SRPBCC family protein
Amino acid sequence: MPVTDISTDAENLTMTLTADFAAPVSRLWSAFTDPRQLERFWGPPGWPARFTAFDLRPGGRVDYAMTSPQGESSRGAWEVLSVTDGTGFDVLDSFVDPDGNPMEAFPAMRMTFAFDATDAGSRLTNVTYFTSAEALEQVVAMGAIEGSRMAMNQLDAVLLSLREYAQGKGTRTELLDDQHVRITRLIEGPRELVWRAHHEPELMQQWLLGPDGWQMVECKLGETYRYMWQQGDDESTRFGFEGETVLSEPTWRAVTTERMIGMDAPGTLNDLQLYEEDGATLLTLVIEYADKDMRDMILATGMTEGMETSYARLEAVLAGV
């Protein structure tokens, strides 16, 4: 993981994050100064950022919003104080309301970003300066340390091209914490087609099948959905899932609930995000479970292997669309 240290200094009212990357400073700089790249890691998993204004020059302003799977929004703005091309910049970071006005309950914080060369590549040093001990404690209590760590640990995937990062590795499952896992898979095909394949029944029934020999016999989509599968012609094997759409931002993000039909067990919250580069799409699915036991029980069913079979089939379907 890139982040090597996050520390707070109550005397100097600072929080310092240090992260090392196997990439040159120029590549790290471009990731922080291109809003489309910055969106891929600025928010932690489950709270991705969208930048609506990006004027990174002294006196300029940057506006962004991070949105939770439930649609809650946390908005921020940078007042750009200084920029040293290629090596760093300083901003005044504020929580803002939907109209872009600073929120009085959350004091603004000065943030410095420094990019330095190392023998192995480059280093990010990010220092946040607070106006009081209370402000520092407030931000830490809001989960800033773990949120920053999880956000910056996503940067490795951005510094490489999508194919360098993911191709040939198949479907990967990462444990984020006791309740969350992240599934990633590179899909050869444009984002629009990958989105359609998740939202058009005639396409979905061709690939979302799991092991060979199974068929999707019911596929109803909309604000609510319902899927049913069975093995061959044996109706006794039939099972399925149902849920609701919580958030939909075509063709980038879809958040849905999921529960097994006829079971009393708690369901999951599934956050699907798609990023395209050079004709390939990185599919990221963050799944929230009720607890660790439920997470481990479902992973033990061979979920990752079953998803890989379906995603490989998806690529073949997209090739023919």
In short: The first strand starts at residue 3 and ends at 9.
